[in-house]
Amino acid sequence: MEPEKEKWINRVLNSLEGMQRAEPSPFLYAKIQHRLADKNSPVYIPNRTVWLTLASFALLLLLNWRIIEWNTTPKATNASDLTTVVSGMQLYPSTNQPYDLWSGQNY
Predict the structure, then answer these.
(1) Between the CA of residue 46 and those of 6, 8, 52, what are the distances in Å?
(2) Confidence of residue 15 (pLDDT cuts 50, 70, 90)
(3) Which end of the chain has fewer CB within 10 Å, C or N?
(4) What is the pLDDT of residues 81-104, one digit of tens each?
(5) 53: burial class by Cβ within 10 Å (0-12, 13-18, 19+)?
(6) Are 102 and 79 in contact (CB under 8 A)?
(7) Strands (E), 1-107
(8) Which one-letter DSSP state was computed for residue 104?
(9) Spatial separation of the C-alpha atoms in residues 27 and 90, rounded to whole Å
């Protein structure tokens, strides 16, 4: 190995010399025990927060229902308008259709 790399490795490893182990505070265990005892007390949520949450969910459900209902309602199409567009663009010869074009399957 190169001597410069060895020097660098030794310097890094020796940098930990003289360090001492971390010592916890003498009251740390008592503080932890006190916090654990406080966690057992029940937590109360204000009534206003509960009602606002319920109202938000109800509004969200109502809006979703209205959007779904709005998207699934069939749009009324005027057959005469469609026939006018098809004839105007000459998409099919109007004399070769013995039935209404928009009344069923057309292949």
Answers:
(1) 65, 61, 10
(2) confident
(3) C
(4) 777 777 777 666 555 555 555 555
(5) exposed
(6) yes
(7) none
(8) S
(9) 91
> Do 30 and 37 meet the contact criterion of CB atoms below 8 Å apart?
no
Distance CA 13, CA 2 (A): 17
Contact 102, 82 (CB under 8 A): yes
> What token pair was written down for 18?
């003289």
Q: Are 61 and 53 in contact (CB under 8 A)?
A: no
Q: Identify whether the C-beta of residue 91 lies closer than 8 Å to the C-beta of residue 73.
A: no
Token couple for 72: 């699934």
- Residue appearing with tokens 């930990």: 16
Q: Which structure tokens are listed for 25?
A: 């505070």
- Looking at per-residue confidence, does 107 or 91 come out higher? 91
Q: How far, rounded to the nearest angstrom, does the alpha carbon of residue 83 sit from its chain's CA centroid?
A: 45
Q: What is the pLDDT of residues 36-57, one digit of tens each?
A: 887 767 778 999 999 999 999 9
Q: Which of 65, 105, 101, 71 is nearest to 83 (CA)?
A: 101
With vertex at residue 18, the alpha carbon angle to CA 14 and CA 21, rounded to the nearest 5 degrees, is 115
Q: Which residue has the tokens 């026939």?
A: 83
